[in-house]
Amino acid sequence: MLLGYPIGEIVLLALWIAGAGILVGILAGLFGIGGGAIIVPVLYEVFRALEVPEDVRMQMCIGTSLAIIIPTTLRSYLGHKKKGAVISDVVRVWVLPAVAGVAIGSVIASFAPAAVFKIAFIIFISFISIKMLFGSDRWNLGSELPGRVLLAFYGFITGLFSSLVGVSGGSVSNAVLTMYGQPMQRAVATSAGIGVPITIAGTLGYMVAGWSHMAQLPPLSIGFVSLIGFALMAPVSSYTASYACGWRTGCRGASWKLPSAAS
Fold first, then answer.
1. pLDDT band at 238 (very low <50, low <70, confident <90, very high)
2. Cβ contacts of residue 244 below 8 Å, gap of 6+?
3. Would you list the domain boundaries of the chain?
4. Which pTM does this prediction carry?
5. Which whole-number Å values give the CA distances from 104 to 82, 86, 120, 163, 167, in the listed order?
6. How many whole angstroms separate alpha carbon 19 and alpha carbon 99?
7. Please, where are the H alpha helices in 50-87?
8. Which residues in 49-84 are b (16+ Cβ under 10 Å) and which e?
């Protein structure tokens, strides 16, 4: 026994998570995809194989995904901030509404059926697909950012949606900023900035939300966050991706980092 759990169960969970990390890394290195958009479905298959009950499985994936992308989002934000690319005024306006949205999402996670999160994730993937197919440059709401009230509303929606699908909110906030005439570099940098409080608040919220479901969850979980998933997936996927990237034409010698606020 280790911390009250059979060692065999912990080893099996670690092996599944490590294998999932390898898969995430290969996909990221070969195709340039990452973040919650790929982590959540991969974790879903892992937790299904481990027979985590379906009524808490999706919440477990989302909470763990939010925890996994905290370090990368923070690193991305600090890097962009050092270059002066972050629109600090937008981050300040968005922080409280975004955290409020995350809090509501966490409350929903504590009692809503798994179907709610599956539907939200399908909407999220559809949004990304439409944006990639048709390009965000066709969506234009103005050449300047809106007022504080509307901007705060966008922050709230970003936080709420992020907490329902397990992402840092970059896809939503990037779209908002570019539709109001902001250059992509500044939009990505600012999205990383708002992604930091979103992922931290979301992780804590899902820990609390899942506390009453502990009997249904895998070993070494705090609420809807798998500590083994957090500890293993990010480093394993990052290490694997650096090799997978080398398999691509013209990618050898490149330095790959785990994707951050892009999703």
1. low
2. 25, 26, 27, 28, 29, 30
3. 7-247
4. 0.80
5. 32, 27, 14, 8, 15
6. 32
7. 54-68, 70-82
8. ebebeeebbbbbbbbbbbbbbbbbbbebbeebbeee
